[in-house]
């Protein structure tokens, strides 16, 4: 029964985290997948742009799904497509100022939600838990999807 003692709690926590994420994103009119794409561009640093292929790698979706997502985000004014100066046939996807603001605000809301979840643990306990979870998830992070 030992695995259930741990993994059932991890599963329950995942459901609470999913709810917290959805709440944080919905307050900024974002879906979780939109946040993932926007924050991938944000992490790229100025000028906050990546090729669609780079976005595929970071978000782990198919090219058709990514095309659809870029179209929808562009329609909302959160990203824009630009010609790739290094490849005449290529495009770059760039975060617009509105997309950057929305991603930053949603991230702040998410961090607030997650801090509340972790508030009952001390800084030392949070560090220990992060190290244990890193150790537990490491084998999955190295498996090609």
What would you note in describing this structure?
This protein has a single domain, classed as Orthogonal Bundle (Arc Repressor Mutant, subunit A). 68% of the residues lie in helices and 12% in strands. By secondary structure, the chain is mainly alpha-helical. Keywords: DNA-binding, Transcription, Transcription regulation. It comes from Streptomyces crystallinus. InterPro entries: HTH_MarR-typ, Tscrpt_reg_MarR-type_CS, WH-like_DNA-bd_sf, WH_DNA-bd_sf. This is MarR family transcriptional regulator TamR.
Keywords:
mainly alpha; Arc Repressor Mutant, subunit A; three-stranded antiparallel sheet; 68% helix
Short description:
The chain has 145 residues and is mainly alpha-helical. It has one domain: Winged helix-like DNA-binding domain superfamily/Winged helix DNA-binding domain (Arc Repressor Mutant, subunit A).
Radius of gyration over all CA atoms, rounded: 18 Å
What percent strand? 5-15%
Uncertain parts? none
State the CATH class: Mainly Alpha
Relevant CATH superfamily:
Winged helix-like DNA-binding domain superfamily/Winged helix DNA-binding domain
Domain HTH marR-type: 3-138
Keywords: DNA-binding, Transcription, Transcription regulation
Protein name: MarR family transcriptional regulator TamR
InterPro entries: HTH_MarR-typ, Tscrpt_reg_MarR-type_CS, WH-like_DNA-bd_sf, WH_DNA-bd_sf
């Amino acid at each position: 029964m030992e695995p259930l003692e741990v993994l059932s709690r991890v599963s329950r926590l995942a459901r609470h985290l999913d709810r917290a994420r959805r709440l944080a994103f919905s307050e900024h009119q974002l879906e979780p997948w939109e946040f993932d794409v926007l924050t991938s561009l944000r992490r790229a640093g100025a000028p906050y742009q990546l090729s669609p292929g780079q976005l595929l790698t970071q978000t782990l979706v198919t090219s058709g799904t990514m095309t659809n997502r870029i179209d929808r985000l562009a329609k909302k004014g959160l990203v824009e497509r630009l010609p790739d100066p290094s490849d005449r046939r290529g495009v770059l996807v760039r975060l617009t100022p509105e997309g950057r603001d929305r991603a930053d605000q949603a991230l702040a809301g998410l961090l607030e939600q997650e801090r509340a979840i972790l508030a009952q643990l001390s800084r030392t306990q949070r560090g220990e838990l992060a190290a244990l979870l890193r150790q537990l998830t490491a084998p999955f992070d190295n498996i090609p999807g």
